[in-house]
Amino acid sequence: MRVARTVDPARHEARRLVIIDAALTVFAQHGYDGATTAAICRQAGIGSGTFFHYFPTKRDVLLAILTLGVGDVRDRAERYAGRTDALGVLLDIVRSGAEDAADPRMPGFVRAVGGIMQQPDVAEKLDEDTRAQRDLMLPWVERAQRAGRSGPTSTPAASPRGSTC
Fold first, then answer.
1. pTM attached to this predicted model
2. Which of 24, 40, 103, 134 keeps 20 to 30 A from 46, CA to CA?
């Protein structure tokens, strides 16, 4: 008789995130084609059986990274939902994007994804991210414009004599 093993959801998710983080590092260093599941396992400090328990393929872990990014954008949209300061929200969005871009792995990861972005499943996930980003920003840009706090007339280059009023 075989007894089913109990899975701790928090531990399961933590291990999954370790693998995702390791994969991000390996994709950034070696590109998508140069990355191997063995290298991801070494980076994560796990065996290959553990990797394949969480992700059937290297592509699946890349898609999980992109899915997490989309989820982060949607989570931010929910956090901003009760706010009324459109310009403050836009500044927070820009700040958050700058923090993400400051991750030293980001340029390599973007190159890795760029190399396979024509693959239908990757393209679909990138389109989903684009929609999530637009859905996050557009309402706040429109609110700021209605409040007279953003738009072409409020930038220093477009304002008379460099005024930002």
1. 0.84
2. 103
**Amino acid at residue number 118:** Q
Q: What is the largest CA-CA distance in the chain?
A: 83
Residue 70: exposure state from Cβ atoms within 10 A (0-12, 13-18, ≥19) = middle
Say if CB 20 and CB 69 are below 8 A apart: no
> How many C-beta neighbours within 10 Å does residue 57 have?
11
For residue 73, give both structure tokens: 């954008």
Question: Which of the four pLDDT bands, split at 50, 70 and 90, describes residue 160?
Answer: very low
Nearest CA to 112 among 161, 49, 39, 15? 39
Q: Which amino acid is at 122?
A: V
- The contacts of residue 76 (CB under 8 Å, 6+ apart) are 93, 96, 136
Phi, psi of 55 (to 5 degrees): -135, 115
Which residues, at least 6 apart from 31, have a Cβ–Cβ distance to it below 8 Å? 108, 111, 112, 115
